[in-house]
Amino acid sequence: MADAISVIPAAVLRNLSDKLYEKRKNAALEVEGIVKQLASTNDHEKIAAVINLLANEYTYSPQANHRKGGLIGLAAATVGLTSDASQHLDQIVPPVLNSFSDQDSRVRYYACEALYNIAKVVRGDFIVFFNDIFDALCKLSADSDANVQSAAHLLDRLVKDIVTESDQFSIEEFIPLLRERMNVLNPYVRQFLVGWITVLDSVPDIDMLGFLPDFLDGLFNMLSDSSHEIRQQADSALSEFLQEIKNSPYATTGTRTEKTGEHNNELILYTRISHSFDTMLMLLLKSVDYGRMAEILVQRAASPDEFTRLTAITWINEFVKLGGDQLVPHYADILGAILPCISDKEEKIRVVARETNEELRGIQADPAEGFDVGAILSVARRHLSSEWEATRIEALHWISTLLNRHRTEVLSFLSDVFETLLKALSDPSDEVVLLVLEVHACIAKDEKHFDQLIIYLIQNFRVDNSLLEKRGALIIRRLCVLLDDETVYRKLSNILQGEPDLDFASVMVQALNLILLTSSELANLRNLLKKSLFDAAAKNLFLSLYASWCHSPMAIISLCLLAQTYQHASSVIQSLVEEDINVKFLVQLDKLIHLLETPTFAYLRLQLLEPGRYIWLLKALYGLLMLLPQQSVAFKILRTRLKTVPSYSFSGEQFKRLSSGHAFSESNDFNELQILEDGDMSEDQRDVHNGINFVSWLQQFQQVQERHRVHSKTQALARYSSTSSAKEIQRPEESKQPLPAPDMNSRPPSRSSRRSPGQLQL
């Protein structure tokens, strides 16, 4: 310090701390001259002493004017050193940087001014302090004093110029600092950061694209800033990076790119770039880390901010097109981001999300290459519970696609998704239910899974009656189209045959019977059943259905009419007892009478033109007529139909046989039987010819119906008991009160006490 005092006059040192700026400025010029003279003699020891004096006695002084003088003095010393200044930067720059956090705004202002002058002199030599300078400028950009902010902006522009022309700048050392600052919410700091990202990205030698994952999330965070200017700057920066990714010749490193395409990209690159060989080499070494960025984009695609979601899904769209093998491990996460966006309230987002979804589904990825079928399946399963119909639909499309491409792998994860798929059958959307059924049909190609599906359906129908009422027909009809209708009905009948819940069995059979009689999808099944009396396959189907159709008298009668076993239909009608003729039965009978007028039973109505040949058909229909209330619409419909039956084909003998209950004797030969009524022959003849023991099947029907009667009586008794118990609980005191004594005066006179006329009263 003594050397410095001996070199610098006391007056200069005194003026350097003066409160007047002009005196401090003149003193600084004196210091500049002194340092310049010392530099000319290479007396760096005294120069170091002068700098230490300025730093320790002035910039670190508790007096604000001393600190101001010290800053201007350090800047003047640097100017005096000119090219030799780099030797003393370790002494000069730290005191200036320390002053950036000074409590006095004027000191902070002079610190910016001093560093600006220092930077102009040393230029690229002070790059070694860049991180510290950047950190200081980052803070000053949000300074409360407008003058300080203005000075900081001037210094910032100079530093940017120096960095862009320097070959000593280390992007690797800078990125951690940038990543740390990207989460700052101050709008001035955000503008400062975006400005630096844009500037550094414009430098050919700096690979900002390779470090994009480190600050990409911060840029996306700025898209939801309250300041329109910041949102615009962030969007501009992101658009520029996305364009670079699309134009990068090695953007799809490791993808399925043919060598010819790579060479073409290289040629295009070399023709477009007019920089030095080193610059070209740096560009060729740039790479795009799709994986890390995909993780960020997936999170941002769920942002509550609409613009952020749109930008994120746009990036994902481009990544799916360009990413190739790098994205394969991230397909599940990407799908998880796309599916909710398909139902976004903003149309632009929905459009991009749908396009991205189609692109992703179109990629033929192989599990051997890292494609995780289980993860994709898990994402699709999770979104089956989405509140949005479009998302649920696309999730089902993904499951269907995976089944078609990777059936073995999907079936290995079936236990994780099967329950959800089954529950989806109760979805409020018809389109979703139809797609679920397609997926189930694809799974049910295996008998094991087919059995599981049918069993679950029946269980679900049993638990949820509304599902059977609202969706039962849709589900059964669609399954019959996707799978074999006969197989579906056989399996349903087989399960219902042993159904312990008799009420449910009856309702389910009635529903299946109605679907069988009315659905166009089951026309082939109806045509097959019409051949039950002379075709083995049709007979087996008839008997398979008969076993469970026994739960409903009207279903059995309908089945017999469909199979043209008219005599057995008549026998079933005759077997009905009083308990069977209830409101539910009459409702079902009403439906059947109306169905007889539909095209399904056109053949039956035409057979009425030959009543002599179809005697048992006529008797069965008259039997139904007798069960209907005369004032009902169904009674009038059926009676009107029967009135149209021509009577000319009846003979007295036929009426006699019909009324006796034996249409034909055992002596009738088979040809006569076939002429008189198609298939309606005596029981013995049918046993021999068709292999159907109708007597035995009628007994089975009666046994099942007896179980239903017992069940109904048990339920009635239970209801009566519960009602009686409730009444007793409500009136406990009434039951304990003694019966009132009879009023003898009110009793009518006994026979012995009655006087006959003329008898005297004693």
From TrEMBL:
Stretches for region Disordered: 712-762
UniProt-listed Pfam families: Vac14_Fab1_bd, Vac14_Fig4_bd
UniProt superkingdom: Eukaryota
Chain intervals with Low complexity compositional bias: 746-762
Location of this chain's protein in the cell: Endomembrane system
Annotated InterPro entries: ARM-like, ARM-type_fold, HEAT_type_2, Vac14, VAC14_Fig4p-bd
Swiss-Prot/TrEMBL HEAT repeat ranges: 92-127
PROSITE patterns in alphabetical order: HEAT_REPEAT
UniProtKB keywords: Membrane, Repeat
Ranges of residues in domain Vacuolar protein 14 C-terminal Fig4-binding: 466-645
Similarity field: Belongs to the VAC14 family.
PANTHER family per record: PROTEIN VAC14 HOMOLOG, TAX1 BINDING PROTEIN-RELATED
Protein name: Vacuolar protein 14 C-terminal Fig4-binding domain-containing protein
Organism: Rehmannia glutinosa
Lineage, uppermost ranks: Eukaryota, Viridiplantae, Streptophyta, Embryophyta, Tracheophyta
